[in-house]
Design goal:
Two copies of one chain form a homodimer.
Chain A (H helix, E strand, L loop, with lengths): L1 H26 L5 H39 L2 H35 L4 H33 L3 H4 L1 H36 L11 H38 L2 H23 L10 H27 L3 H28 L4 H9 L4 H14 L1 H23 L2 H17 L1 H23 L4 H48 L9 H42 L2 H4 L6 H34 L1 H38 L6 H38 L8
């Protein structure tokens, strides 16, 4: 019982820390009327977006809850509600924290980089801890209520539904607003980014929050919940209660480690803004391994299995910086890939596009090798030290769980990015001065690196979470239907694989098209405002920010519905017609192409972005090369912020829908 | 015995028809000194490329033959030699036919479109019939020598090795030469395409032959051989000699149907140049079904199995125009996708790139649905009418075989394209006049459509051939190692899938980079010639064509070696370390991501190309929109002509290597 309460205790500690950070942030000066006016507009826009999202999610969730309660089990419906509800709550809290922290970080620029960094980081840490502790809380509460992972699986579906809406919807929103603002503002009217005369500028800033911050949060929350559920399901299949609860304890250990890691960051001005963030991560990682090993020892003792579990935890923790380094190598301008893309801008547009695509495609190799090595290593220690193949699979899932147990600190460093970005926007819009802007630009550059590397983390963890869940799904389906033919010689499995591998390609095309069509509407609106109110560009008339926010919001949601329905219904249709073996194919196929397509898109996009930034750093902003690099960045935007990250949720939604609906997969054919 | 001789007889009929076409072509007038000089230069360049390729392939093949003879079986080594040898022979014959037909088609422009079309088509038909009959001949001869499909599998590996070199090497060559010629010629020097002052123009024309014609031929030859082998292996597993020989008979039926189909094309000038090509295909398809059903009836009689086989043949034949229509829809400017890409050029570069990528990604959906429907339908008729699941799988393979049995006519229509393209080049270079050029442009446009749709056919058939071979591989591995765990719950299978799905992404990045680096070298050379010999651009001095041909040849081959080694060695390494189940994962993973990535790249590339052409048709050649469309086309070039089509051979090489090396897959871990 003490063990069962540990995750709830850890969540409470993290939430209290988050609360104290929130109070600390509240006490920071928030600036004069002009600052407040802008941040209020951003807040309103973000709230409008979330409200509209929630307005669709709630009735949809109500229908799903009723269906689950009626056809499957009331407990599953409750799990769905809790999984979805806490995800929304965590999203709202963390987004509002980031939004309200941005003006405070902007004001803190007058006190130096240390103070600004601390403000932005604590906002990020609040978001990071709220999201992970809510995820842990959702599953540990459910486990206390009914310690049966099968009934708890609805929580994963709930988390997925929310993540799909926030991640993909936010992804469309942020890039449509960004593109719309840039196309008319920068290119046609020739005004700088974040200029208050641009009617789309608030929508753009809202986009940073709903896309980058809330989207990433919902994505990681979902991976966390899915991995917890998958490893608990596998523990249940082994038939040992200690193995069922262990994933929760590993999560709790990582969460406590995260609390210590984020508390050690101080307001002292660092030489390199990355240093305190790195220290925060290293502290969390080392403590995570120690505490994780401790709970493993307390739960299963030191035998073969205990050692296998500890090695699996270490593997998972090591995977985090490894994947971040790989991603950094392919996306930061300190290394050859982005330098090569930058050099290609002197050849021409096509060379720049091809080089960016090529580097992104290439980056999939080291990612794949890391993931494959982690899977093989954890499986073999688990299998060889216990002589039980299912324990090998269980150890693979635990590696993923250990990786995700550090989500709190990863998200802290990630959410720091949009706060700095927004603070920069406020500095620009209120005309605070060049020195302050340079400071936020420096932090924004760090934030951009963190954003890119966190995307790598999110993609890898989504794939690993899905792989764990696919294993659990197969066992659950066999528990219902008896032995099933999951072999690659079953044509039904092959057909499922073909359908699953298709989805990331097709959904990407829908999402890229969604950004274009929504951006076009924003462009039309901005042009209309410039045309009808001549005073806007002269700075004597106020633009109507709200209209652009409204267009981005409704556009994003409308464009999202069809792809969301396709993703959610495909496994159900395949399952009803062809049965659970075909569904396993769909789930696996989705991971296989989704993993690499997402990583390619995220890295190509980030690399183009940084090639452009590199030219700016080199002082070549108004050159033809820079103009070419800007096109690369525009191509990369929907790649890295819409299609790429949305595939994470696509991969997982397939799994959570399937595990909940498994009993309907009767296979008519 | 009569049955066994039928494929050899059909091959002989096709070869005699090809020979008579060749003699007819020889008799056509080949023009004056200027025409001959150019066509001689193209011929020399093409021969230089093939000679260099063969110079690498022969020693490599000798080593492989020795290894196979020593470690596996002398018969397998013989099969390898025959499969590779006839592939090279078919490639050389068909390439030389196309090269020598181009000047004759150029001369025929003076006689009108009917005569030009007939010349180009008969050259294409010669290539198409030589390639398919050689493939059929290779396997039917081996079957007469030793009727054991397992020993014959080496032929597939031989075909794969040649295809990898010709397809990927030719793909790098053609686009590097094209890009190099365009970047300096069109953009810097401002001279038109195919201008004789451009030192890279001969290399560009050689590229059309080695990339488009020889590459496609080797690719289809490989798919044909692989599918024959896979279906014969499956027939062998059922243990019935009639089912082992039936795939050969279906191939022979299709080949005879093709002979009739190509003979009906006359020199009458058609309203629409597409009409005679369509008639040729329809005649072949209808006759193919009739003859195919006849051989099925003669071989297995009319029972459940006979009906299942006839339905499978019809499915395969229907798949050909279906996939061609889908590809045409996404790549021809008569339909919305390319119109939308064309419209996006008025927004800007990024919109054009994103729209092209989006449409290519989208096109994977109908392709996937067609393939999935064909697999499900053929499997279910085969299974339900015989109550034997292996016969279901066998019928799936037969559907692929029926599809490929029409390769001859598909290749005839495809090879027609490069001949027209080259004829246009000769018309331009010898200054024959605008009317003649317009005529070849019209045929070239038809050829472009055919090229794009044939790519769709080649991609789908590569994937289906691989799927059939994967099934055969699994059975073979089990014959050696006993029961194996091919399930998706085996982590080793999952790891194999992850590795296999990675390969197309990674190899694409290598091939795209290869085009860029080789093109850069050609650009440097062209610039050097323009700089050092001022008379070239004035038209008073001759450029050195040979140097550009040499750079393209050696660049293509050098850049190809590493990716080729990675593809060939990956299944062997995985097999030796992790065993045959993991290899099955690699093979399946390769098909899953390779199929969609290849189709996306081929279609995005062709769509950009045609968006540019559409603007030209609309008379908007010197507009800013056209300049944007040109960039799209340049991005699309390595997509559609290098990376995309090379993935076809990647998918199949994995399979043929694995089936030959299966006895080495001991699984050390």
């Amino acid at each position: 019982m003490l063990l069962e309460l540990f995750p709830i205790g850890a969540s409470a500690v993290a939430l209290v820390t988050a609360l104290s950070f929130g109070i600390w942030l509240r006490r920071q000066p928030s600036g004069g009327e002009d600052v407040r006016r802008i941040s209020e507009a951003v807040r309103e826009g973000a709230v409008a977006f979330i409200r509209k999202e929630v307005g669709i999610i709630i009735p949809l969730a109500a229908i799903i809850i009723a269906l689950i309660a009626f056809f499957i089990h009331p407990y599953s419906a409750l799990a769905f509600a809790l999984g979805a509800g806490l995800s929304i709550l965590a999203g709202i809290i963390s987004m509002l924290t980031c939004v309200s922290a941005a003006p405070k970080a902007a004001i803190a620029t007058s006190k130096g980089i240390g103070a600004t960094l601390l403000t932005a980081f604590r906002a990020g840490a609040t978001a990071g801890m709220v999201i992970t502790s809510m995820a842990l809380l959702a599953i540990s509460t459910l486990y206390l209520l009914f310690p049966n992972p099968v009934l708890m699986a609805g929580a994963g579906f709930g988390a997925s539904l929310v993540a799909l809406f926030i991640r993909a919807g936010g992804g469309i929103y942020t890039k449509a607003a960004d593109l719309g603002a840039d196309l008319v503002g920068k290119l046609e009217a020739g005004i700088p980014e974040d200029d208050p005369r641009n009617p789309a500028t608030i929508a753009d800033n809202v986009g940073d929050n709903v896309g980058d911050a809330a989207g990433m949060g919902a994505d990681i929350y979902e991976s966390y919940v899915v991995t917890l559920l998958a490893s608990m399901l596998l523990g249940g299949i082994v038939g040992r209660a200690d193995l069922t609860i262990l994933p929760l304890l590993v999560g709790a250990a990582g969460l406590l480690a995260t609390v210590v890691g984020v508390v050690v960051v101080t307001g002292r001005s660092p030489e390199n803004p990355m240093t305190p963030l790195n220290i925060s991560f290293i502290v969390s990682a080392i403590l995570g391994v120690i505490l994780g090993s401790l709970v493993a020892w307390l739960t299963v003792g030191i035998g073969g299995l205990g050692i296998a579990i500890i090695i699996s935890i270490i593997l998972g923790v090591v995977l985090v910086p490894l994947i971040q380094r790989i991603t950094d190598y392919y996306t930061s301008y300190s290394y050859p890939p982005v330098k090569r893309i930058t050099a290609s801008t002197s050849v021409g547009h096509s060379a720049n596009i091809l080089e960016g695509i090529g580097q992104g495609l290439k980056s999939t190799l080291p990612l794949a090798l890391s993931i494959v090595a982690a899977i093989i290593a954890s499986y073999y220690v688990g299998f060889n030290l216990t002589n039980n193949p299912i324990l090998g699979i269980y150890c693979t899932a635990l590696t993923t769980m250990a990786m995700l147990s550090l989500s709190g600190v990863v998200l802290s460093i990630d959410s720091f990015g949009p706060v700095s970005d927004n603070a920069g926007g406020i500095v620009e819009m209120t005309g605070m001065g060049d020195e302050n802007r340079k400071l936020t630009d420096r932090l924004d550059a760090v934030g951009n690196t963190a954003k890119a590397t966190t995307k790598g983390f999110a993609i890898a963890s989504a794939a690993l979470a899905a792989i764990a869940m696919i294993q659990a799904f197969q066992k659950e389906a066999e528990a219902i239907y008896g032995a099933l033919d999951y072999t690659l010689s079953n044509p039904v499995v092959v057909v499922g694989l073909l359908v699953g591998a298709l989805l990331p390609f097709y959904i990407s095309s829908r999402l890229i098209a969604a950004v274009s069509s929504t951006a076009t509407k924003i462009v039309d609106e901005v042009r209309r405002q410039f045309r009808e109110k001549k005073g806007i560009l002269e700075g004597v008339e106020k633009p109507d920010y709200g209209r652009c926010v409204g267009i981005a919001t409704s556009g994003a949601i409308r464009e999202l519905l069809t792809p969301a329905a396709i993703v959610a219904l495909t496994p159900i249709i395949v399952g009803v017609i062809l049965g659970p073996a075909a569904v396993t194919g769909v789930l696996t196929g989705g991971v296989l192409s989704g993993l690499y397509l997402a990583y390619h898109m995220a890295n190509s996009g980030a690399a183009w972005d940084n090639a452009k930034k590199y030219l700016e750093v080199l002082g070549r902003k108004k050159t033809p090369e820079h103009a070419i690099a800007v096109v690369g960045d525009l191509v990369g935007d929907p790649y890295k912020d819409t299609a790429g990250p949305s595939l994470n949720t696509v991969i997982k939604v397939l799994n959570t829908v399937s595990i909940v609906a498994v009993s309907a997969f009767i296979g008519l054919l």
